[in-house]
Amino acid sequence: MAGEKNKGQKSAEAVQERSSGKLKNKEYEKELARLHVELVKLQEWVKFKGLKVCIVFEGRDGAGKGGTIKAITERVSPRVFRVVALPAPTEREKSQMYPQRYMPHLPAAGEVVIFDRSWYNRAGVERVMGFCTKEEVEEFLKVVPNFEKLACHSGVILLKYWLEVSPAEQTRRLEGRIDDGRKIWKLSPMDIKSYSRWDDYTRARDEMIAASDTPWAPWYVARSDDKKRARLNIITHLLSRIPYDEAPRETVKLPSRRKLGKYTSPDYAFKVIPEVF
Known about the structure:
Helix content: 40-55%
CATH superfamily: P-loop containing nucleotide triphosphate hydrolases
Distance between the termini: 48 Å
Radius of gyration: 22 Å
CATH architecture: 3-Layer(aba) Sandwich
Structural class: alpha/beta
Strand order of the largest sheet: 2-3-1-4-5
Number of strands: 5
CATH topology: Rossmann fold
Number of domains: 1
Order of helices and strands: HHEHEHEHHEHHHEH
Number of helices: 10
């Protein structure tokens, strides 16, 4: 990093010192704005160097994956940072090799791909909810390290995050979705069925991480009961795991406009929206 401490780490110690008590909105927004600047620098470096970055987010329902992904992507280009959140597989996709539906979404040069749930569905929700057999899970856990090794050997920088939420906080968040018109889409029938299977998901998580926590694609666990701290900590960490610097760019200066008023618009009745605010 050009002789500097990783920029994403700057003032992280200060954030940790304030880790007791609730993080104030003003404090959170200030830190997030600083990290957004670094994410834009990372974006430009990824394009400049043709890097291939893949970030996987896993965790229980209500762990905060969506909010973390939004915090990462809200100030960067969707042409560089692509979010992949695949729906349930079609009948055709069910007949494919399991990794097949995920492989087309892996990053090409100059891209950062973020998976909101990933191929690890096989070791998580599919296993717990009985959508696959025990043998299929065992086979997946055997082959996934080599699948990820091939991706990393092809130049993909792979980061895997598990967001860990407590039972009480998960309950609070899921209950908060029931009557909130902005969040009802987040509470699916599958979430309701999964809610009672805490220990099953814990067992699945432990076996998944034990089988796929490798030197080339390690798992990182983020405690997410405090959403704001989790977002700041995850962004800080991912910036520390991807070497980047400021990409060269030309100084931007707006050109002078040609004289205005030479063109007159036709007399057309534009359909202007009502100004109710």
